[in-house]
């Protein structure tokens, strides 16, 4: 639902706060919607009941991104979906060597408050007055200092040393927007800004060609092996792409080490999959060279090594066997080894894992990881130790 100013006024009142506290102890499953609304209608208007139920669900869903703070905060569904991973939020904030920052398109204030927690003077602006009101409430709830105002970033920004820009990457129907100039507002909005440092959060599936004319550096950030976002940094003096991995309470960076060419070869002892930030940053060959590996195919983001790499940047599987893809031969191979359970991974294969497993008709107590990929353009299958 879309929250109105009246909805937010009710939810932030003592009566609304008590209702949200009550709902926090309820089973908020979608299947219980009718029963919950029927019960709430005995004491509240239909609009108040719907608003409270939606906010209670948003607070429940926000725990992964905001922890215990979620129960004190206010969200919209779209703002929560676009909110940054907490480790990414605080990592970005730690990189900003500035005293003041404008959060352009601040939404409910998640990133603005991360910058405020890092000690910056933050001024958040957004075109949606309800989200701005939520941002103010969230700042007060978390005990952080930040100013928020309703304004349109397309018409200029207040003075500050730095800008953080997080344009909407979904349309009004919730569909993903894939081109930076179709973001709302478009990325080109920042061309008129004069702040010393500009940080723009972009989709992790970014086509790098779309930002080639902006200069600066693009950073792909993954958290514990899950690609979260791309960030365009303007004003740092850096160029090119790099990968950043946030894992095990550590921050790891990978920058291009120079022009490298990695050989193609058949599978060796280990199949290695780079972190998705390395893949999106175009650093697969660089990683393969660093770990002494070779590629199976120039278009596939796997490489193969003689020894198992010990690094948070990669996952590796011990290869037991490999062969050209053939369903009949694969079924016989697995049956002969009494393999009754497989984990299927794939890159560059059109085969659907679920469909393949159903056709294998597996029996037995053993298990393995089955990798479907290509070697020099031809489909192959690798049988690996289960992982």
Your description of this structure?
By secondary structure, this protein is an alpha/beta fold. It has three domains: 5-60; 80-252, Rossmann fold, CATH 3.40.50; 270-384. 29% of the residues lie in helices and 26% in strands. The chain has helices at 5-11, 14-23, 33-40, 46-61, 63-66, 77-82, 86-95, 110-117, 129-142, 276-280, 284-290, 327-336, 353-360; strands spanning 100-104, 121-126, 147-150, 162-165, 197-202, 217-223, 226-234, 240-247, 250-255, 270-274, 294-295, 303-305, 314-324, 339-346, 366-375, 378-384. α2 packs across α4. The two termini are 42 Å apart.
Give a summary of the structure in a few sentences.
The chain has helices at residues 5-11, 14-23, 33-40, 46-61, 63-66, 77-82, 86-95, 110-117, 129-142, 276-280, 284-290, 327-336, 353-360, and strands at residues 100-104, 121-126, 147-150, 162-165, 197-202, 217-223, 226-234, 240-247, 250-255, 270-274, 294-295, 303-305, 314-324, 339-346, 366-375, 378-384.
Reported CATH architecture of the largest domain: 3-Layer(aba) Sandwich
Number of domains: 3
Q: Largest sheet, order of strands side by side?
A: 3-2-1-4-5-7-6-8-9
Instruction: Look at the structure and give the mean pLDDT.
Output: 96
